[in-house]
Amino acid sequence: MSDTTPKAPRRRRWLRAAALLGGLLCAYTALGFLAAPSLVRRVAVKQASAALHRPVEIDRVRINPLALSVTVEGLRVKHGDGAPFAAWDSLYVRLAPLRLLAGDVGFAEIRLVRPALHVGLDARGALTFEDLLAGDPAAAKAGAPAAPAKQGGLGLSIRRLAVEEARVVFRDATRKPAFETTLGPLTVRLDSFRTRGGGDSPYSFTGTTESGETFRWTGTVRSAPLRSSGTLAFERIQLPKYAPYIHDQAPVDLAEGVLDLETAYELAWGADARVLRTSGGKLTVERLALAPRGQADAPVRLPRVEVAGIQVDALAKQASVATVAVRGGAVRARLEQDGTLELARMAPPPSPASPEPWRWSVGALEVSGLAVDVEDRSTARPVRLPLTEVAVKLEGIRPGPETACPLAASLAWNGRGRLAVKGEVRPFGDRGTLALEAEALDLVPLAPYLDTSLVAQLTAGRAGAKATIGYDLAGQAPRWTFAGDVRLDALAVAEAGNEDLLRWRALEVTGIDAASTPPRAAVRRVRLLEPRVKAYVWEDGATSVARALRPASAPAAPAPAGPAWRTSIGSVEVAGGRLALVDRSVTPAAVVNLTGGQATVTRLSSDPTVRSSVDVRLQVEGASPVRVTGTLNPLQKEAYTELVVASEGVDLSPLGPYAGKFLGYGLQKGKLDLDLKYTVVNRALTSTNVVRVNQLTLGDKTESPDATKVPVRLALALLQDREGVILLDVPVEGNLDDPEFRLGKVIWRTILNVLVKVATSPFTALASLVGGDQADLSLVEFTPGTAEPLPAAKERIALLARSLGQRPTLGLELEGSADAAQDGAALRRAALERALRRARAETLRTAPASLDEVTLGAEERVRLVKAAYHAAFPAAPPAQKGEAAPAPTPQEMEERLAAAAQVPEDAYRALAAERAQRAREALIAAGLDQARLFLAQGGERARKEGGARVYFSVR
User: Fold this and answer.
1) Checking phi first, is residue 129 left (phi over 0); if not, alpha (psi -120 to 50) or beta?
2) Per-residue confidence (pLDDT) for residue 302, from 0 to 100
3) Which terminus of the chain is less hemmed in, N or C, by CB atoms within 10 Å?
4) Which residues, at least 6 apart from 443, have a Cβ–Cβ distance to it below 8 Å?
5) What is the three-state SS of 446-465?
6) What residue stretch is flagged as signal peptide (predicted)?
């Protein structure tokens, strides 16, 4: 007993202590679970309402004294006007008391579920919770100094932080219209966060908006010193929603656009070092559509814009981008009627210069697959030019006037041509050098620009070039250089409603070397291939050239005086030229054709010491040669000119209408030889004009009021020798600056006083000479509407040639005939055929060189016939309801169109002339000398009998 007696009081003390501790634990537990939640809820509501100056509601508070955790459920905070401010479903906080041993206020877990925050800016620009940031007014009034921060105080430690399904509603009333967005649900994860010591803490933020936008923010953070690095990403950002934020910066409406952005970042903020930079960023914008403010139609639509390699150092104010790429898209570049550019209406106003500007660079700007629709509404007729497959690459972009950037650009021009540019430019400077290559650029879309100076219209034409262009905009006047080759192919100019006035196959200008300082322009060679010119003189005396040119509304202002240009052209060449002159100021109209034109002019120069040479060769009506040689230099105002014009055997019958008007008699035949010499020195002209006329035969008296009063027939009898030749020598002198001096007029007045009539011989039956007694050799017949002789005509021409071979002194007159009775139907059908081919040619992507190259399929022909028929004969309403005439067949349509086609009188005369020409060519081929063959007009037999024929007369 003695051994155990001392232990009993000790045991009883331990039991009492345990009982007391248990009672305290029970009381603590009961208080924590039962009494404390209600008390904490009431105190929290009261204190929070007072601190926030807003009503605060809490549904429930739960406390677990054993886990050292508190849960606050159903918190709601409202603004004074009853609008929601903040709320959450539940907030769970569990303490980690052992962290006090390490000097930290510790939390084992903080979990916030479905918090919601409504914030923003009011119309004045103040935060809706700005009163919470102002601090305690009483404390501010008392001016109590803030307690100094204690060194080595408690830190903060959070083992696990989670924010689940958070939402933030933001409204900015300063924008017009007001901007509002909802961010959420937002999820935040943060593990092992400490403000003192230890390593970096990983974190993760993810969230979405009501528009389906998402963002991710992951990385590590450390607070002492503040340091963080990680990745920030935004996806499916709806750009139109944020348009209010550029409302004051640029007059642009963001019609569409979705943005993705991802970048790595690094942040360090301490006493020793401060860093704030991003790296490896990439940005993508899809379906971007931009329009001037208030305009529904967006002129800029880009399906994809990619920006890669974004680097930003915010503290150093440096930024760089590796590439900016625009993939596809469409841009409308429209110049309005008032001269403003639609795209310029979206340009931001100039911003004031920053005292410390950012340094930035872009490695490469790339554009591919872009379509640019160029439209100019400032002209009377709008200009529309589609540019497709636009590709641009500009490298090494950075600010600075000396920054040289390689440039490569190309595009497709109006679906046909190609344009490419390469070189080095200074985007922020004033110099550059570019290599340009252009091929088959369709010029027709640019034709409206010619409307101010041309009544005629450009109907075809393609441009090409290969050149190097340099420019320098420094100094008072811009300077430029141009070196290379230029060409214009298949150009055609037509007067409205008429045939082409001008057409050529190619114009080549090679070896161009031009510059503005000093002003010079040199060309190695100019070559014009197969030009076709059709010139008219109309009834009122106006020429097609005058009608094609629009009269100037006001005289042009004189150009400012400057250094004289030095110009030179190595050679100018014309090959295969043709000129058709139709003069309707006389009746009937005169038609003269010059063919086989070949010209060469060498050493053209503005230097007065340089002499040029000219050599021009052509044929009149396809047979008679004309040659011009000598010296001619239009680049010199006071140039020395010496020309010799020589022709042989020029047919005068096409000039018959002039004889009828000025001589008073028609002209049946005649040939002309010219030997003309002209010399111009200091604008003074001296010339000799030797004219030889052979076998000139006049026709009937015309009673023309403009005819000379000279007795023409008597003059012919006196001047004509026994061979039927008249020789004239007409010297002419004058000054080219005299407005009354006209060389042609002076010569013509002289010739009008010398008239020639050739003795004629009666026509004899030539068939008997070659055994063709039964053959009528006085005519050959042609297929109606064409210049194609009938099969029997070939035998007649052969017989006629053999018979004339036995009469070498005889000449043969050929007079073509065409009339409506025999040729009208065929000519009308030919006119319809040309109209159908012309309609087909207008639908072709490449304009044909002539309508003869256009072919019509059966289905295409039926379609074109129907279109022409309905245009010419609009359907009339039925006479009575329910009645309708049966629709004509395509064949009937074509026949009616052909019957209604109009054939001008010129067509008959031209056909008659062509038949005579074909007959003459056949006789020449049969061995006759062309000097013995004469084209005639106005013969009595042809006038009486007419028909699709060529009549022969022997003289």
Assistant:
1) alpha
2) 96
3) N
4) 458, 461, 462, 463, 488, 491
5) HHHHHCCCECCEEEEEEEEE
6) none
- What phi-psi label fits residue 98: left (phi over 0), alpha (psi between -120 and 50 degrees) or beta? alpha
pLDDT at 269 over 50: yes
> Could you give the CA distance from residue 522 to residue 947 in angstroms, rounded to a whole number?
57
Do 768 and 797 share a domain, yes or no?
Answer: yes
Cα 231 to chain centroid, rounded? 44
Band (pLDDT 50/70/90 cuts) for residue 235 is very high
Closest CA to 215 of 189, 245, 236, 239: 236
SS3 183: strand
Question: 538 pLDDT exceeds 90?
Answer: no
Do 180 and 81 reside in the same domain of the chain? yes
Residue at token pair 């589609």: 386
Nearest to 781, CA basis, from 829, 824, 822, 826: 822
Together in a domain, 727 and 812? no
Q: Are residues 708 and 830 in the same domain?
A: no
Tens digit of each residue's pLDDT (9 = 90 or more) over 818-834? 888 888 888 888 777 77
Contact 168, 196 (CB under 8 A): no
CA 213, 216, 220 angle in degrees (round to 5)? Answer: 165
Quote the CA–CA distance of 685 and 342 in Å, as a whole number. Answer: 57
Q: pTM for this structure? A: 0.64
Whether residue 423 is contained in a domain is answered as no
Asked if 509 and 555 touch (Cβ cutoff 8 Å), the reply is no
Q: 3-class DSSP state for residue 684?
A: strand
For residue 107, give its domain range.
8-134+158-195
Per-residue pLDDT, averaged over 129-154, amounts to 53
Closest by CA position to 503, among listed 849, 898, 62: 849
Closest residue by Cα to residue 671 from 690, 660, 655, 688: 655
Identity of residue 23: G
Banded pLDDT at 313 (limits 50, 70, 90)? very high
pLDDT at residue 707, as a whole number:
79
HEC per residue, 317-345: CEEEEEEEEEECCEEEEEECCCCCEHHHH
Query: For residue 199, how far is the Cα from the chain centroid?
Result: 62
Q: Do 674 and 686 belong together in one domain? A: yes
267: exposed, middle or buried (Cβ count in 10 Å: 0-12, 13-18, 19+): middle
Residues paired with residue 595 on neighbouring β-strands, in sequence order:
619
DSSP states of 130-170: HHHHS--HHHHHHTPPPPPPPTT--EEEEEEEEEEEEEEEE
The token pair at 391 is 């590709």
Distance between CA 897 and CA 808 in Å, rounded? Answer: 50
Pairing of strands 779-781, 949-954: antiparallel
* Best-predicted range by mean pLDDT (126-140, 441-455, 553-567, 850-864): 441-455
pLDDT at 301 over 90: yes
Closest CA to 397 of 387, 407, 389: 407
Residue 919, helix vs strand vs coil? helix
Does residue 276 come out as left (phi exceeding 0), alpha (psi in the -120 to 50 range) or beta? beta
Q: What is the pLDDT of residues 696-713, one digit of tens each?
A: 777 888 888 887 776 665
The 8 Å CB, 24+ separation contacts for 204-210 are: 207/166, 207/183, 208/183, 208/184, 209/181, 209/182, 209/183, 209/184, 210/181, 210/182, 210/184
Segment 867-878 mean pLDDT = 74
Q: What confidence tens digit (pLDDT) does each residue in 591-628 have?
A: 888 899 999 999 988 888 888 899 999 888 877 888 88
Rg (alpha carbons) of the chain, rounded to whole number: 49
Distance (Å, whole) CA 906 – CA 581? 13
Number of domains observed in the structure of the chain: 3
Whole-number mean pLDDT of the chain? 81
Whichever domain contains 928, its CATH number is: 3.30.1330.60
Q: Looking at residue 147, what is its pLDDT?
A: 45
